[in-house]
Specification:
The chain has 2 domains: about 190 residues, no CATH class; about 170 residues, Alpha-Beta Plaits (2-Layer Sandwich), CATH 3.30.70. About 65% of the residues lie in helices and about 10% in strands. Strand 4, helix 11 and strand 5 form a beta-alpha-beta unit. Helix 3 runs antiparallel to helix 4 and helix 9 packs across helix 10. The structure holds guanosine-5'-triphosphate. The site of guanosine-5'-triphosphate (GTP) has 16 residues, from strand 1, helix 8 and helix 9. Keywords: Membrane, Transmembrane, Transmembrane helix.
């Protein structure tokens, strides 16, 4: 148990002791009232008050001195419960004329136990309580009374019931606090879990999805394709000349370039697409519900935006472009095979002079460079 947990237990135990002491004080006053009415000897009220003070004092000293930390249950709930229960049974024997009071007190005593006792300890305390109660009920043969003998005793009995209900309210409030604490802890835990999940699926530098998350998303898209035939294509985007940026301007500038590139892609992609950092200066864009034929337009925009971006803001002469390889996912193949095709296409784009798109094997979309040449020839 951590010292923070122990401190919490101690503060709860101290609060409980205060309530128990207050409760015992009321009982002592009620007993004094019954003594005044001649139902019991006045010394019984004094003894009840003195024993309450003594036992609560002992537990207070144990808690304050830290001695309770040596126990398996530092709250000492079982010990306190048994002390209180046996005290009630003892007084039931010596003052059966007001025996109802000690019997209803047992409810409050056992209810306090609910705050901390495990089922096993609760069962043990119940069995011990039952055993102890057998003494006044069976062996001693005392007359346990409900002492309404006049107007005053009626008020005293009424007060004792009201006070018992009050004790139940205090216990309900403590249980409510425990429940609220648990609910708060649960919420904190689920927020922390969400955060951990975010960290596990996000790239820390660029805040895009990471490779692990990409693999999961690709598996989802593959399933969707198999179920509904919804097409998707995989594009691998690799920066050109990024090593040069790092070498000339430093790693920190390189990081800024990566983040800016992510912004460019985010500004051009659809919300339903998936974008992830694969590693280093290599990224993957999964275009959902899209074939390469349709995907070429946003990819071309990314290529163009990257080439036209004001990289000089990071340093005079700083600049990168993007080479992109893209392929359709084909029925029945593994993601790995599609990935290899996209990778080969990306290397083809590099080999063809960088800053362009190569579609793996789509007729009519060999490279964006050939499209540009065709456009120029038409013009
Ligand atoms: N600043 C920064 N650099 C990184 C990070 N991860 C990898 N790199 C660097 O990125 C560079 C990637 O190398 P290359 O892909 O060969 O560089 P390139 O100049 O773009 O080469 P081509 O792709 O052939 O155009 C290496 O120098 C890595 O050290 C990162 O998180 N931050």
């Amino acid at each position: 148990m951590t010292s923070q947990q122990l401190n919490k237990i101690n503060s709860l135990s101290e609060r409980m002791l205060m309530w128990v002491l207050l409760s015992c004080t009321f009982d002592t006053l009620l007993l004094a009232g019954f003594a005044h009415e001649g139902l019991i000897n006045g010394r019984i009220a004094v003894l009840y008050g003195a024993l309450s003070l003594f036992f609560n004092g002992v537990y207070y000293v144990l808690i304050k001195s830290g001695f309770n930390r040596r126990f398996k249950d530092p709250s000492m709930t079982f010990l306190q419960l048994m002390t209180a229960a046996l005290m009630q049974v003892g007084f039931l024997v010596i003052a059966p004329e007001v025996g109802y009071l000690f019997l209803i007190n047992l409810f409050a005593v056992y209810a306090f136990g609910m705050l901390r006792l495990t089922a096993g300890w609760y069962l043990a305390s119940w069995l011990l309580g039952a055993l102890a109660l057998s003494i006044p009920f069976h062996l001693v043969g005392v007359e346990i009374a409900f002492p309404i003998t006049g107007h005053i005793t009626k008020i005293l009995v009424y007060l004792s019931f009201i006070l018992t209900l009050g004790r139940c309210m205090v216990i309900a409030n403590m249980l409510g606090n425990i429940r609220r604490g648990l609910a708060d802890k649960n919420q904190e835990l689920s927020i922390a879990m969400k955060h951990v999940q975010e960290l596990a699926t996000r790239d820390a530098l660029t805040n895009t999805k990471n490779r692990r998350s990409l693999e999961e998303l690709l598996a989802v898209e593959q399933n969707r394709f198999q179920r509904s035939g919804s097409p998707f294509c995989i594009a691998i985007l690799d920066l050109d000349g990024f090593k040069g940026v790092n070498d000339s301007f430093g790693h920190a500038v390189g990081d800024e370039v990566l983040k800016a590139f992510v912004q460019i892609v985010h500004s051009q992609m659809r919300l339903s697409d998936h974008f992830a950092r694969y590693g280093g200066d290599e990224f993957v864009l999964v275009l959902t519900d899209t074939t390469v034929a349709n995907g070429m337009t946003p990819l071309q925009r990314i290529c163009d935006e990257t080439a036209q971006y004001d990289w000089n803001q990071f340093g005079e002469g700083c600049g990168v472009t993007a080479s992109i390889g893209v392929t359709n996912y084909r029925a029945g193949e593994t993601i790995d095979i599609a990935f290899q095709r996209a990778d080969a296409a990306m290397y083809a784009a590099k080999a063809a002079g960088r800053n362009q798109i190569v579609a793996s094997d789509e007729p009519g979309y060999v490279t964006s460079a050939t499209q540009a040449i065709a456009r120029a020839a038409r013009a």
